[in-house]
Amino acid sequence: MDRRHKTHAVQVGHVTIGGDAPVVVQSMTDTDTADVQRTIDQIRLLADAGSEIVRVTVNSEEAAAAIPAIYEGLAKHNCNVPIVGDFHYNGHLLLTKYDETARLLHKYRINPGNVGFGNKKDDRFNAMIDVAIKYDKPVRIGVNWGSLDKELSTQLMDENAKSENPRPSQEILHEALVLSSLTSADAAVERGLGANKIVISCKVSRVQDLISVYQMLAARCEYALHLGLTEAGMGSKGIVASSVAMGILLQEGIGNTIRTSLTPEPGASRDKEVIVSQQILQALDVRSFAPEVTACPGCGRTTSTFFRVLTDEVDGFLRSKMVNWRHQYIGVENMKVAVMGCIVNGPGESKHANIGISLPGTGEAPSAPVFIDGEKFTTLKGENIAEDYKKLIEEYVQKTYAPREKLIASH
Question: What is this structure's pTM?
Answer without folding.
Answer: 0.90
